[in-house]
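Data deposition worksheet. Section B asks for the primary sequence of the deposited chain exactly as it was used as input, without tags or linkers unless they were present during the calculation. Section C holds the resulting structure in token form. Section D is free text for depositor observations; keep each observation to a single sentence. Incomplete worksheets are returned to the depositor.
Section A, Depositor: J.P.
Section B:
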Amino acid sequence: MHDEFLCHVTAYGVCDGRRIGVPLGTYRAPTLALALWWLRGPARQEEVAEALAAGRLVRIATGDDTTEYELLAESVDALRMQRAAPVLGVPVA
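Section C:
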């Protein structure tokens, strides 16, 4: 079971013809329940909970006429496991 989750929100817009992302905030949720609360709104709670508990990245996007908002959440444990996994074909010392 994944115990801790890293959540981010970023706003994207167009400036001088280029898509620009501006980080709006980060939250390190100590429990799955708090990560789900942070992602509340248009998110389907049960589906999101299953994805996070399985260690998958969750992305929710919404927007208006000028801006897209992206909310991301992922398991801190899953991130650690990805970093610790050896690269295939490279010997581990």
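Section D:
Residues 5-84 form one domain.
Helices lie at 32-38, 45-53, 76-84.
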